Fold this protein.
Amino acid sequence: MPIPLPRVAEEVGIVLSGASASIAPIVLRRDRELRVLEEDLVLLADPRLEGYYMLGVVRWITRYEPFLRRSVHNMYVEHPDALDTETVMPFSNAYVEIYAGICDGGPVCNGSHRAVNNVYAPTPGSKVFKLTDAEPLTSYLTVSDPITVGVHRYSRWRIPLDSAWLNYHVGVFGATGTGKSRLILRLIREIVGKGYRLIVFDHSGVDYTPYAGELGATVVKSSEIRIEPQIFASIIARLTGVQHQQRDAVEIASLCYAMKVYSENGGGERYQSEECSEILGQGRKGLARYTRGPRADEDERKSAREEFLELLNNVVHHLNMRASSAVKLRLLVRLTVPERLFEGLRSRLREPSDIVDMALRDRLVIVDMSDEQDIEVKRGIVASIAEAAWEKIAGERKEVNLGLVVDEAQNYACEYCGEAGRSLETIAREGRKWRYFVIVASQRVARDIRPGVRSNLGTVFFSKLQSTGDLQELAGYLDLGRVTEASLAMLGRREFYVAGLMNPLRRPLLLHIDSVGGED
Ligand SMILES: Nc1ncnc2c1ncn2[C@@H]1O[C@H](COP(=O)(O)OP(=O)(O)OP(=O)(O)O)[C@@H](O)[C@H]1O
């Protein structure tokens, strides 16, 4: 059925000279010019192209007046009262950024009804129609698995987003309070409804955990989840900041310590190794005197850190390191690694792979990280779960349809975020063929998100941005058309552009996000 233009659009102007296939200057009708706003969707109807429209977005509306010109003095400056509205002859020009051609049964598209790349420059004089209801456009788009999170800001068109592109990863960026977390909540509901599985990391426990009931999610406290021994080892090494052989010693001791604690707490064979048994079995010799208290009964009340230090002594001895290195390592561990990091291992009874299995079975798991005090540990949890999913993929060699949702991603996906940053980057680079993806949200793009992650985001939602320069950064990976910093400055709360692969037009469209969590 052809687009019912009189019902869904109003004529607002004509195309001026100098149009190309991607941008057209227009002049607005005097009686309608105030009804046309930047970001409005318009159709250009070229009389030479029957049954074909050009779909575009209005940008750069500029008001002119032939007499009141810039840099020309006029008497009304001195006598503004003499300026009556009849003598002023304002008019408005704008540009239409052309996003697509709409084949509406015309001969140029062999009678088809679909959206295509526009290759025609509109003829000057072509009519411009503002879409007041763009809903009919949906039937012209090819969207294999549609989801929606909001409506177009002005035409109220419920833009279908193609969830088939989720595996190319998603970024959500905007200054504080723009509504990133609510947008992600909306996305979560839609994505899970399409059969995908998600693990949501709730950094502070206030953005997602309270909605678990509504979403039908299982909540797991991150303090119950085991950190993979190798990731635990790299956290301890990072905190102590040592290098070379000393780092080896700290890492070996940390690996064996985590494996020992886990195997003593129901971890099973996975955490037993000959190498660690050899070190653990080594009698207290030489440097072990540092760990022993003056009285024998103090030994019984050894703290988790003291146990670790004892193990570290054994490693140092095993590696034939100097006594001074041993003392330095012990001091560094005491000063830089909080006791709770060792202590907490004992109550970590859930394997990261259990969380992955839980998500694959129940669809949605929220990991509540609110009771975790150390950012390094939070990062360790994210990395451990990310790695556990890779192990699953390596074992089964099939698509997982699994996404990790990482809000406050400046803490996890940054350049200096250690294992978490590396694991998220691996997913961003290689996850797509296994349908293993990430959704990251943050206030800033370049400073918060490492290049290997941000350059692999196929779809980006962005609102007012915190840092100047971030828009250009995004424009390096995505077609942002002629959206400028000035366009962003006009955005309010809950207003996000969507650009990239999930957007069927692939060029930025301004969305008003559906209400989530009460507020209208
Ligand atoms: N889609 C929405 N529906 C209803 N309310 C919303 C929506 N988006 C934003 N809000 C309102 O704006 C407030 C801030 O939203 P939100 O917490 O999602 O912002 P944010 O960008 O994640 O902020 P921060 O970066 O500080 O975490 C919410 O508490 C809510 O009142």
